Amino acid sequence: MKLGFVSDSLGNLPFDAVLNHAQRMGVSGIEVNTCGWSTAPHFRLSSMLGNREAQKRIAAAFEERGLEIISLNANGNPLHPTDPAQGQGLKDTIRVAGEMGIRTVCTMSGLPAGSASDSMPNWVVSSWPPETQTILKYQWEEKLIPFWTEIVALAKENGVERIALELHGN
Questions:
Q1: Domain assignment of residue 142, yes or no
Q2: Who contacts 76 (Cβ-Cβ below 8 Å, separation ≥6)?
Q3: Model confidence band, residue 170 (pLDDT cutoffs 50, 70, 90)
């Protein structure tokens, strides 16, 4: 079993201080936030993608302390109906993980709108009344299945073996 923590839990500290705390606590490593609802103060996704030197510096800082990057975390709603950057952040996180040899990416399950004309994330918790069936059919067939099929293919293409899903509170 590996013990670690998410980098945002110490988001107010500089990167080196976070790693030093992790080493002092004796954890295996850190789940590093990359985008979404996180400000990702320790990992600038846009400057990491394709930047082997920056990736090596991050990896070396972990290795020097005997720590592992347990996963990259694209924290957000990748299916948000009005914020496509959150889905793109997950895709870029998968690409960077592949470039760095990180085999696990953590993200939220995603919460789409209830229809093509809706702009608010919506989660139906009951299949009654009957109109909820229309919402569920739209969410699953038009949004969730196509999106996650694409994400799984992208993960395989980039050598990411696991996508750890956190369920949305809604």
A1: no
A2: 35, 36, 37, 38, 86, 89, 90, 107, 108
A3: low
Structural domains in the chain (count): 1
The pLDDT assigned to 169 comes to 64
- Predicted TM-score of the model (pTM): 0.95
* pLDDT at residue number 134: 94
CB 109 within 8 A of CB 144: no
* Residue 100's CATH number: 3.20.20.150
Domain of residue 13 covers: 4-111+148-166
Determine the 3-state secondary structure of 11 from DSSP: coil
- CA–CA distances in Å: residue 82 to residues 79, 113, 120, 125: 9, 9, 8, 22
| Summary mean pLDDT of the chain | 95
